[in-house]
């Protein structure tokens, strides 16, 4: 099977591509390698994929530009799509909202159109746990209402889910949307907490601890996330008018992918201190705009439907990340 993976130079996208190649699939990656964070890191991820040989092909293009996207894909065939490319970041969406309009809204629509006209067997796409906004019922379930986003990033991800539902209804396009919960691990993103705290602790710099440390996150290790994505890819929702996870009766399912454990931020910092071999200099701050105090994934739907079962605790995942970080930076 040949799979088109958007965001192939990204953290999750590159790791998914490796897993697909491991099992014998062909992968066509697409990414515009923008400068939201280190383009060098993205190039390093791509180099590892390209070193694997002919099973991986890559197109450097911005999928939010439809004409260029169609032209770039003109001579390529693929059966399924994993659409992970997006403008990420809750806080950055407050600073640069228009980046989210183009990448997350126009880009998602473009991938829907590509999938529809190509007769793709299944489109798996990235949503986010951010869609739960200020929900206070825990854990977050895919059956919950998600009408009150706290950031533009969250609003664009909810809009993507609605567009996908429309295409499932109008065209019978099989799709699965995945609400990711705080993904971390080797080859991660420099704009995320795990990377920022590790970098600052090792450098002896002060780390910002928001809401005075009273924060909880469902930290999910990258290998567990990828296992969930692949399980979804292999199980397109049926067009049988029966209810799917998330409530659709069309071929469109929504799943949480998390670790099903909400960890206190101070526990995570303690584990990072242990692995880094030094105490953190903490600056306690109030809650940031657009942020939420707690995330916690109800993963019953994906577990029941696809057998998804995360296996990596933060006690295992944090040492693995810090070890990789030291190696990558020669520390």
Write up this protein.
- The protein has 331 residues and is an alpha/beta fold.
- The protein has a single domain, classed as NAD(P)-binding Rossmann-like Domain (Rossmann fold, 3-Layer(aba) Sandwich), CATH 3.40.50.
- The chain contains eleven helices and 13 strands.
- Strands 3-2-1-4-5-6-11 form a seven-stranded parallel beta sheet, with helices on both faces.
- Helix 7 crosses helix 9 and helix 9 packs across helix 11.
- The model has no long low-confidence stretch (mean pLDDT 95).
Mean pLDDT: 95
Q: What is the count of β-strands?
A: 13
Give the CATH class. Alpha Beta
Q: Roughly how many Å is the radius of gyration? A: 19 Å
Which strand order do you get reading across the main beta sheet?
3-2-1-4-5-6-11
Dominant shape: globular
Q: Number of helical segments?
A: 11
What's the number of structural domains?
A: 1
- Under CATH, the topology can be stated as Rossmann fold
CATH architecture: 3-Layer(aba) Sandwich
- CATH superfamily caption: NAD(P)-binding Rossmann-like Domain
Order of helices and strands: EHEHEHEHHEHEEHEEEHEEHEHH
Helix content: 40-55%
Biggest sheet overview: 7 strands, parallel
């Amino acid at each position: 099977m040949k799979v088109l993976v958007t965001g192939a130079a990204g953290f999750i996208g590159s790791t998914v591509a490796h897993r697909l190649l491991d099992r014998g699939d062909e992968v066509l990656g697409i990414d515009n390698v923008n400068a939201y964070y280190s383009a060098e890191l993205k190039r390093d991820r791509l180099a590892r994929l390209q070193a694997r040989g002919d099973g991986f092909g890559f197109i450097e293009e911005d999928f939010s530009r439809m004409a260029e996207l169609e032209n770039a894909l003109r001579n390529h065939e693929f059966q399924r799509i994993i659409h992970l490319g997006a403008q990420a970041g809750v806080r950055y969406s407050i600073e640069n909202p228009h980046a989210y309009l183009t990448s997350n809204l126009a880009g998602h629509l473009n991938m829907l159109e590509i999938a529809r006209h190509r007769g793709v067997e299944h489109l798996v796409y990235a949503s986010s746990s951010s869609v739960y906004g200020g929900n206070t019922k825990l854990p977050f379930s895919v059956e919950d209402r998600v009408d009150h986003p706290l950031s533009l990033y969250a609003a664009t991800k909810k809009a993507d889910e609605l567009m996908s539902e429309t295409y499932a209804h109008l065209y019978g396009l099989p799709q699965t949307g995945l609400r990711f919960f705080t993904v971390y691990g080797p080859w991660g993103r420099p704009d995320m907490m795990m990377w920022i705290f590790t970098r600052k602790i090792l450098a002896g710099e002060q780390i910002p601890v928001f809401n005075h440390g009273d924060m909880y996150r469902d930290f999910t290790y990258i290998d567990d996330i990828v296992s969930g994505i692949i399980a979804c890819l292999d199980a397109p929702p049926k067009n049988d008018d029966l209810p799917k996870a998330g409530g659709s009766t069309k071929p469109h399912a929504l799943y949480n992918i998390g670790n099903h454990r909400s960890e206190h931020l101070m526990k995570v910092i303690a584990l990072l201190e242990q692995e880094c071999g030094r105490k953190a200099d903490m600056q306690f701050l109030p809650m940031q705009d657009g942020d939420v105090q707690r995330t916690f994934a109800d993963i019953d739907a994906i577990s029941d439907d696809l057998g998804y079962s995360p296996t990596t605790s933060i006690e295992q995942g944090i040492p693995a990340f810090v070890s990789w970080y030291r190696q990558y930076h020669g520390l």
